[in-house]
Design brief:
By secondary structure, the chain is an all-alpha fold. It has two domains: 149 residues, 3-Layer(aba) Sandwich (Rossmann fold), CATH 3.40.50.2300; 195 residues, no CATH class. It contains 18 helices and two strands. Strands 1-2 form a two-stranded parallel ribbon. Helix 1 crosses helix 9, helix 7 packs antiparallel against helix 9 and helix 12 runs antiparallel to helix 17. It is elongated and about 70 Å long.
């Protein structure tokens, strides 16, 4: 609907230098793109009645972005932050100079918290309410079929409810498009670092709402069963020794078998640790022209701490308190130092690198927080977020 409204306004203003298209907020990599879904009945009715363009409504099919198209466009305007976050998970959503190309309607008009409400399903609520009134049906049926509704409502009445439900969306989008094309409109300019800070702000807010939940508890294993437990977790090619300071511990291994021995929460922690360890390996092996040397050195240092202390401590209960938080006093200052070095090297690395390199670092930062949120205490997580934000 937004694309059809904006096209009409461009025609009315005599602007022919802007091309407008409509896409879903996702990227499709398949060699055989899907044909897409039809326009919702509410949008189709509104477009048909207001613009007299029933043909457009009938032929429209939703389509995803391709990576090539997302790379080529100058600007993408979406309804809400969830759609924006989804597209910004693709490197092509940033220009070559690392500036984001995806913004919400609210950000475009200077009201960043504003989101356009999706009325999907509200027409069915109105139809069901009227059906039950006419049929005197007070049953607790979960879903009313359109065919059943037609016993008491005509097609014109059903279309009328769809129009009633989607008209507020049209009015909101019409107003937004006027503001987008006004002389005072300014396209926001958020760098990849700005976007990372915003991501972390939203993430910190979400973490703050859930941190009161109980953390998973890992009871210390008896010493005699430690090697047997590891054998059940790791694959046949894994190399490990029981000495906590041996650098070979968990250098090779597969934690998938952990699901047979632990709770889902504990298994998720182990998989996060393994994933982050692999990312540290990839980062530390990159050359100086791919990543700054200071960043790769910090990643390697943190990986050493991860392998020598964190992973062994996870399995044998050492360094953990009864609430499954790492005990900083037992781990020692080396963990805090390595973590701080890595966190403070994120933004300088992103400044120095090209788009692809900076995007890799951004993903690495997200993985770092996955680990921190899973295995650190509240105060430690607060400190890490403070470093980033």
């Amino acid at each position: 609907m937004a694309a059809r409204i904006l096209r009409q306004k461009l025609v009315e203003k005599g602007i022919s230098t802007i091309d407008v298209d409509s896409r879903r907020a996702d990227v499709e990599y398949s060699s055989f793109p899907s044909s897409g879904l039809k326009m919702s009945q509410g949008s189709a009715v509104v477009i048909s009645q207001i613009f007299g363009d029933a043909e457009y409504a009938r032929q429209h099919r939703s389509r995803s972005f391709t990576s090539e198209l997302l790379d080529a466009v100058d600007l993408v305007v979406v309804m809400d932050h969830q759609q924006r976050e989804k597209l910004l998970s693709e490197v092509e959503a940033f220009s070559a100079d690392k500036v984001a190309k995806v913004y919400t309607f609210g950000q475009m008009i200077g009201e960043p918290e504003y989101s356009v409400a999706d009325p999907f399903g509200t027409d069915l609520i109105l139809i069901e309410k009227e059906y039950r009134r006419r049929a005197a049906d007070n049953s607790k049926e979960l879903k009313l079929s359109r065919e059943k509704a037609k016993q008491y409502l005509s097609d014109e009445e059903i279309e009328g409810f769809a129009y009633q439900a989607y008209l507020p969306l049209y009015r909101a989008l019409d107003q937004m498009c006027d503001l987008l094309l006004s002389p005072d409109a300014v396209i926001p300019s958020r760098t990849m670092i700005d976007v990372l800070r915003e991501d972390l702000g939203y993430r910190y807010e979400r973490w703050g709402k859930t941190r009161e939940k109980a953390w998973p508890t890992l009871f210390p294993l008896r010493k005699g069963k430690f090697a047997t437990f590891l054998t059940g977790l790791l694959n046949s090619e894994s190399q490990f020794v029981e000495n906590e300071d041996a650098p070979g511990l968990f250098q090779k291994g597969d934690f998938v078998g952990a699901f047979r021995h632990t709770t889902t929460e504990q298994s998720e922690v182990m998989l996060n640790l393994q994933t982050f360890d692999r990312q540290c390996s990839r980062v530390s092996n990159l050359s100086a022209d791919q990543l700054p040397r200071e960043f790769t050195a910090a990643a390697k240092a943190y990986q050493e701490v991860l392998r020598r202390r964190v992973m062994p401590g996870f399995f044998n209960g050492r360094y953990l308190n009864r609430y499954f938080h790492f005990d900083a006093a037992k781990i020692g200052p080396d963990l805090t130092s390595a973590l701080s070095s890595l966190a403070t090297s994120i933004y300088p690395a992103m400044e120095e690198l090209d788009r692809e390199g900076a995007f890799r670092v951004r993903r690495f930062a997200a993985s770092l927080l996955d680990v921190v949120e899973n295995v650190y205490s509240e105060s430690s997580v607060e400190e890490v977020y403070h470093e980033f934000i």
